[in-house]
Amino acid sequence: MKRAVRYIIFYGALFGLWTLLAKLKIWPPYLFPTPWGVGDALYQGFKDHTYWIAIRVSLQRVLVGYGISVVLGMILGLGVASNKFLEETVGGLLVSLQSLPSICWWPLALLWFGLSQNAILFVVIMGSLLSVTLAMEDGRKQMPRIFSQAGRNLGAKGFKLFWYVLLPASLPFIVSGLKQGWAFAWRSLITAEMLYLSLGLGQVLMMGRDLNDMSAVIAVMILIIAIGYVVDGVVFKGMERRLQSKWGLTAAT
Amino acid sequence: MSASVQETPRRLPIPESHRIPTELPGKARAVVLERPERLAAPAIAKVGLSEICLSYRTGSGERLLALDHINLQVKAGEFVCIVGPSGCGKSTLLHLIAGLHQPTSGQVLVDGQPVRGPGTDRIMIFQEHGLFPWLTVARNVEFGMKMKGIGKPEREEKTREYLRLVHLAKFEKSYIHQLSGGMRQRVAIARALATEPDVLLMDEPFAALDAQTRDLLHDELERIWGDTGRTIIFVTHNVREAVRLGDRVILLTFRPGRLKSEFPVDLPRPRHLEDPDVARAAGQILSELRDEINHSLEAEYSSGVKPRVKPGGEE
Q1: Based on the number of CB atoms within 10 Å of its own CB, is A146 exposed (0-12), middle (13-18) or buried (19 or more)?
Q2: Residue A155 to residue B98: CA distance in whole angstroms
Q3: How many domains does chain B contain in total?
Q4: Which residues, at least 6 apart from B99, have a Cβ–Cβ distance to it below 8 Å?
Q5: Residues B91 and B53: beta-carbon distance below 8 Å
Q6: pLDDT in tens, B76-129
Q7: Are residues B140 and B238 in the same domain?
Q8: Which residue of B has its CA nearest to A247?
Q9: Least enclosed by CB within 10 Å: which of B68, B264, B307, B314?
Q10: Cβ-based neighbour number of residue B259 at 10 Å
């Protein structure tokens, strides 16, 4: 309850300050959008379905890209964690690649996949694959050895061992990495979408720029933040809570 | 040293009044009688260790001999306890029997067949129970059956049956962290039994429990063993626990682990930890064990590096 009050006060004050600055008209509205202008842009955007379509297209892309990242990242991470040679070679390469913004792959992606959906997906995957891989590797190493011993002892091997023992056993250790991977995937997607006509949220944002409509730009930024926040709050917080109640942990991180 | 293994085992001086003939119904358990095939082929031991050696490289690169020519035969339905100071390799021996590790040389035989890897005929119960915290009690118990591909109705029925056996039927929907240490160990026992193994390998399962819980679990384990007729190999550093439970107590030396001596325990069952005969027998074994404990303490305090590396240290 108290927390809700704090939220209301903080965001109320923020909104108030924004309204105040807009009312004072220190800057012209095309430089400093007003709250009512942004509200109107949101209303119009949803009314003519531009935003609905953009949200659907972007979410579809991020789900596919992130899904591929998770599957590939888990396999890669497990491989790196269980093989000394892979750890020293691939593991080191992965860590060094982490400093590379995924959008740097864009020129290559264009050459390889053309001006298409797949080029965007490639950038999304390159953005989130590393976090998932490193998280999985770390999780596999932190996971108590007794789980895999008990699993093998009870007759689990190969894929069954991975699916029923190694994966659930390492989940508390990889959930923060999965979350980070999601954030990277979402950011990479928006960046890539900004670069060409793609129907997604990124393109809608750039459309605002082209029309010199800063209210629309802010409106789309709010949408991007809101979607990221909701996914984090619903999917990942829920996952953490479930893990905590099952494992009896006070904090999953 | 391995020659001493071949000697006839030392008998404990057990008062004649306590010695019971092997044909007594209390001793010949019902399940053994139900399975005459076990009696028909007494020549092949249930578990046989022949010339087991295990050595591994420590962090500093030197080779360490952990187990040195271990020979041991365990009969079907027998309850064998292995005691020794910490670091003697007794847990490692169980891992070898479970097939989780391979010996450097020598063979582990089960029913005369060499062990090549883990198998559900030999289920291990770990000190830290090794239950899966992401599954409920019931799902933990049915895990082995699920891996075997047994259908759901049968799994559920067996799970209920084994949870009843360890008196935990009411807790099937609980998660592991909601149970006490003793209850967790009972779930681990139920999970092991549900896979219907011939051999239970117990690695200091009660070491982390308080004395009262341990007493209770001793009684339960003895009862379950009597009811199910499983072969049990039980590792502990607690000599009195070994005498309380075992048909036979095997004493291992400290690094390298060798068979020092073995003691048949002919005391009547059910036994109790406080029985004077249990205490007396334990005293005997303990005096032999004490030398080994001293060796282990010396090694731990004299060398700066604690060489407590198990071969399974890395995976």
Answers
A1: middle
A2: 11
A3: 2
A4: B108, B115, B116, B117, B118, B119, B122
A5: no
A6: 888 889 987 776 778 888 888 888 888 888 888 888 788 888 888 888 888 887
A7: no
A8: B133
A9: B314
A10: 24
Q: What is the ipTM of this complex?
A: 0.71
The residue among A143, A154, A167 with the most chain B CBs within 10 A of its CB, best to mutate, is A154
B147 touches A at CB < 8 Å: yes
Nearest to B238 by CA among B206, B201, B276: B206
Question: Is A96 at the interface with chain B, CB within 8 A?
Answer: no
Is B129 a domain residue? Answer: no
Q: Which residue of B has its CA nearest to A243?
A: B134
Q: Which residue, of B153, B177, B196, is where some domain finishes?
A: B196
- Which of B91, B134, B137, B177 is the best residue to mutate to test the A interface, defined by the most A CB atoms within 10 Å of its own CB? B134
Alpha carbons A217 and A213: distance in angstroms, whole number: 7
Out of A82, A154, A243, name the one closest to residue B143 (CB).
Answer: A154
A-B C-beta contacts closer than 8 Å = 74
Alpha helices in B173-275 (DSSP H): 181-194, 211-228, 239-245
A242 touches chain B (CB under 8 A): no
Name B18's Cβ contacts closer than 8 Å, sequence gap at least 6. B266, B267, B268, B277
Which residues on chain A are in Cβ contact (under 8 Å) with B122? 153
For the segment A170-189, what is each residue's pLDDT rounded down to a tens digit? 888 888 888 889 999 999 99
Question: What type of residue sits at position B221?
Answer: L
pLDDT > 90: percent of chain A? 25
Integer angstrom CA distances of residue A204 from A31, A57, A200, B44: 19, 11, 6, 78
Domains and CATH numbers, chain A: 38-247 (1.10.3720.10)
Length of chain A: 253
